Amino acid sequence: MLYGTYAFGLTSISLAILLLLAIAIALIFRLRNERKAAQHSRGGEEQFRTLAEAIPQVVWTAGPDGRTTYINHQWYEITGMSPPEGLGEGWLETVHPDDRDICAQKWQQCLRSGRTFEIEYRLRDATGGYRWQLDRAVPLLDGAGAVREWFGTCTDIEEQKQNQQILERLIQERTEELADANTKLQEEMHEKDLVRREFDQRNEAIMLELTERSHRATLLASMGQLLQSCITREEALAAAIGFAPKIFPHRRGAVILLNPAGKLAEVAGSWSDCQLPVSAFEPSGCWALRTGQPHIVLAGDTTAPCAHADGVKHSYLCVPILAQGQTMGILHIQTTDQAPHLEGAEVSSKATFAGQLGLSISNIRLRDALRSQSIRDVLTGLYNRRYLEEALEREIRRAVRAEQCLGILMLDLDHFKKCNDTYGHDAGDAVLRETAGLLSRSIRAEDVVCRYGGEEFVVILPTADLNAARMRAERIRARLRELTVVHNGQSLGVITASVGVAALPEHGVSTQELISAADAALYQAKREGRDRVVAARPRATAENANAAVAG
Fold first, then answer.
1. What is residue 516's predicted lDDT score, i.e. its pLDDT?
2. Same structural domain for residues 365 and 428?
3. Of 235, 236, 286, 293, whose CA–CA distance to 264 is shortest?
4. Whose CA is closest to 68, among 141, 147, 151, 136?
């Protein structure tokens, strides 16, 4: 009966407000039509404003651009503002900061679409507090169907909001009363019913635990499948850290990985606002890394805390991330205020999580190593000929699409065979390594340098035209002459090179055309005496020369 009476009262209030609003809108529309029929006469405007001022609601108008042109006195009484404050876009200043952007966006959308504007927001009153309002505006169209003006009303719904909260509180109180009565009734039940209920509760708890374990196992399996499809360490970390709060909803944690040298442990990612005092530390700072076994530290226990968790107040667990007998880092788990207890049984699922992540990272490292071996020259560390073809094809497509230039340098060490015959192949290898190092230091980040074969190297120069490529080649040739290579305590003499230069589009727009042009220029440099740079002839000139030779 309490709820029925209250709900009836709330409904009556709402109907009264809506009825008042409907009457006000009807009167306003009627007056607006009369004003339009009077062709905006001064008397019609004054009559409209007189009626608008008499309505116990906020009434406002705005132009087609959305800027407020009129607000009745109710606005100023509610907000404490003074005319003409609130006109234009000034009304937005009284909207609650949390509601302002949404309100402005909705208003702009309605201005563009011509649809009715309707929104609830909090309005600052004269006391500095905020009250809920229902703001609604409709467009008034001219004969051509264009918006001539906007007419709107603003209704205080603060009491409705409060009444709704009161009703919810009453429902809650009644629910609590019923719960108390039910508890008392249960306490009066026979001992047999109590035992049976406790038994059912235990069964329910067991079922809940089994369900949670099943759900966790399903998530771990899904994560494992996803991790095996990751091709970069970053992808694997993102997947693991994304799954972690779902698999361990009442835990926060971090993934900490050893750097390639194994001398430093670094925080690679975390979830649920896990707090650690340092982002990197020596491996000896974690007992799990020292022992290779999971390590639990309960809150307040000073027996064997990890240095990297110094200052952590909650219990925590460190689980080594292992794969193929190699330690890659640790999975660090912390308890929360909602679930402060850390049980030894939790180690199993955390170890599974760490194992799947470790296996994924290990596979990625293996794939990266195999990939590197397939595209890198073993002796020099430069990209090999296979990668050159891929990179050059890619850069040609990019240059053609962007209508940019592309330079190609083909470099061959002069008298390299003589160096090998004189000093031995080890000395020749030293020359190749030093040359590769110089080329790597002489290029931009976007350039690509490859060992083409033997003592030949190719440099790809994105965005470089023929003149720029030739200048780059001259600098490399000059620096190469200054290179000193010492093998077994003996200098191997001056290193010189012949360089052929080609560019896109002068010498072609395909890999074969550019390589052939650069190669031809290289052999011309050899014929002209070596230790020089020669630019390839344009295609038309080269074709005419070849035709003349053939004739």
1. 95
2. no
3. 286
4. 151
H/E run at residue 462: strand 456-462
- 333 has which bridge partners? 253, 317
SS3 of residue 116 by DSSP: coil
Residue 339's closest CA among 202, 490, 212, 158?
A: 212
Distance between CA 290 and CA 381 in Å, rounded? 35
The answer to whether residues 38 and 141 belong to one domain is yes
Q: Kind of pairing, strands 326-334 and 252-258?
A: antiparallel
330 and 426 fall within a common domain: no
Examine residue 75 and state whether it is found in any structural domain, yes or no.
Answer: yes
H helices present in 284-346, as ranges:
287-291
Shared domain check, 365 and 391: no
Residues 198, 251: Cα–Cα separation, whole Å: 29
- The number of helices, as runs of H, and strands, as runs of E, in the chain is 15, 18
Domain of 407 in residue numbering reads as: 385-550
Whether 154 and 6 map to the same domain: the answer is yes
Residue 244 lies in a domain: yes
CATH code, domain with 241: 3.30.450.40
Please report the pLDDT score of residue 36 as a whole number: 54
From residue 104, give the alpha-carbon distance in Å to each of 133, 178, 185, 445, 455: 15, 45, 55, 46, 68
CATH number of the domain at 38, please: 3.30.450.20
pTM above 0.70, yes or no: no
The identity of residue 471, as a single letter, is M
Among 302, 336, 371, the domain boundary falls at 371
> How far lies 231's CA from each of 227, 361, 363, in Å?
9, 9, 9
Residue 549: the pLDDT is: 40
Say how far apart CA 535 and CA 501 lie, in whole Å: 5
Q: Considering the domain boundaries, does residue 512 fall inside one?
A: yes
Q: For residue 336, what are the β-bridge partners?
A: none
Among candidate residues 27, 17, 118, 129, the one with its CA nearest the CA of residue 78? 129
Determine, yes or no, domain membership for 209: no
Read off the tokens for 215.
């759900």
Pairing of strands 295-297, 316-323: antiparallel
337-342 contacts: CB < 8 A, separation 24 or more?
338/250, 339/250, 339/251, 340/299, 340/314, 340/315, 341/315, 342/296, 342/298, 342/315, 342/316, 342/317
* Spatial CA neighbour of 137 closest among 154, 126, 125, 151: 151
- Of 138, 161, 184, the domain-final residue: 161
Tens of pLDDT, residues 321-346: 988 778 889 999 999 888 888 776 67
